[in-house]
Amino acid sequence: MSEARAATAVAGTNIALVKYWGKRDAALNLPAAGSLSLTLEGLGTRTTVRFSDDLDADRLVLAGTPADPRATARVSAFLDRVRARASARARAEVVTANDMPTASGLASSASGFAALAVAATRAAGLALSPAELSELARLGSGSAARSIFGGLVEMARGERADGRDAVAAPVAGGDWPDLRLVVAVTSEGAKSVGSTEAMERTARTSPYYAAWLASVPGDLADARAAIAARDLPRLGAVAERSALRMHASALAADPGILYWNAATVAAMETVKALRARGCAAFFTIDAGPHVKVLCAYADAATVDQALLRTPGVLRTVVASPGRGAHVVQMDVA
Ligand code: DP6
Fold it and tell me: Count of CB atoms within 10 A of residue 197's CB?
């Protein structure tokens, strides 16, 4: 029996309130601007990594089924970085499952690569700092760098060419347990254009991309101030503005990228109507048609009911702020 070491980690997905959209370096996944997000509880990924000398290739099992070669190659390339760091050669079996079905459009690479970074490094016997884990997770997916941390998290653009300073960190005052994010699912299908390709096309062809990038530092400063002051309307206003500007830049790409469907727009109208009635609710939208609504715990049921009554909304999930990625089990053989 050869030596095998295994670790299981859990990571929550995160939803950006100030969006990441565009890279300054594609190979290292270095963002062209900073971003700020909320890590969620209960919507994430659980991943076990087991290194074994008995394997002649890395294996990836996704939701109980062997993954396709493309997904396996992406994970294998990530494991190569971990092996290089640990001076190890053993191949690994990676068993991973999302809380939401992958095809729902909510299962994310953010929680996936955060859980993989934590599980793979621990299984390889490494003890990385949170900042080092964030840097490693970023190499899998830019947004994954943020899911290493819980609550409200800011990702730094960084200045260095090697990306050592392009890491996430908790925001001061970012442990805000009263926040809720109500997710309105508006489609069962896979998204039309993946975020990696869409942000690259936006950067290359959208006349609005430069304006988008120029707007981010101000939104980050405003979001930080809103968080420090526990000012939900101010944070919500930043979130809506950032999402709309991100989508505006993508809409203006060539060919244009439209993620919204009729229910996306209807849900945005619902949020505006709620606000007109005095309910502090604010939407954000990622690279897909679902609408995520930021509000306080006391309003979450009202927001949830209003979204469920919105034509085209298929179902909702009410999510709370969650912990950062963490190990839940270790096995040493
Ligand atoms: C719209 O992190 O999925 O969700 O770095 O290419 O893997 P890659 O992109 P990804 O992009 C996330 C885009 C977004 C906004 C955000 O999460 O900040």
Answer: 11
73-111 as b/e: b if 16+ CB within 10 A: ebbbebbeebbeebebebbbbbbbbbbbebebbbbbbbb
Ligand 1 center to 56 CA (angstroms): 32
Give the side-chain half-sphere CA count within 13 A for 242.
30
Structural domains in the chain, sorted by start: 5-176 (3.30.230.10), 179-319 (3.30.70.890)
Q: Could you report the per-residue pLDDT of 94-147, keeping only the tens digit for each?
A: 999 998 765 455 667 999 999 999 999 999 999 999 999 999 999 999 999 999
Give, for 59, the enclosing helix (H) or strand (E). strand 59-62
Question: Virtual CA dihedral for 118, 18, 254, 210, nearest 10 degrees?
Answer: -110
Q: Which amino acid belongs to residue 62? A: L
In the chain, the amino acid numbered 4 is: A
Question: How many other CB atoms are found less than 10 A from the CB of residue 279?
Answer: 16
Q: How far apart are CA 63 and CA 144, in angstroms?
A: 19
Q: At 210, is the secondary structure helix, strand, or coil?
A: helix
Q: What is the pTM of this model?
A: 0.96
In this structure, the residues whose C-beta lies within 6 A of any atom of ligand 1 are: 16, 19-20, 29, 35, 109, 141-143, 195-196, 286-287
> From atom 14 of ligand 1, which residue's Cα is the shortest distance away?
286
Could you give the angle at the alpha carbon of 27 between the alpha carbons of 248 and 128, nearest 5°?
Answer: 105
User: Ligand 1 mean position to 331 CA, how many Å?
Assistant: 32
| CA of residue 63 to ligand 1 center, whole Å | 22
Q: Report the nearest-CA residue for atom 3 of ligand 1.
A: 195
Q: How far is CA 46 from CA 58, 191, 215, 325, in A?
A: 18, 22, 35, 10
CA-35 nearest atom, ligand 1: 18
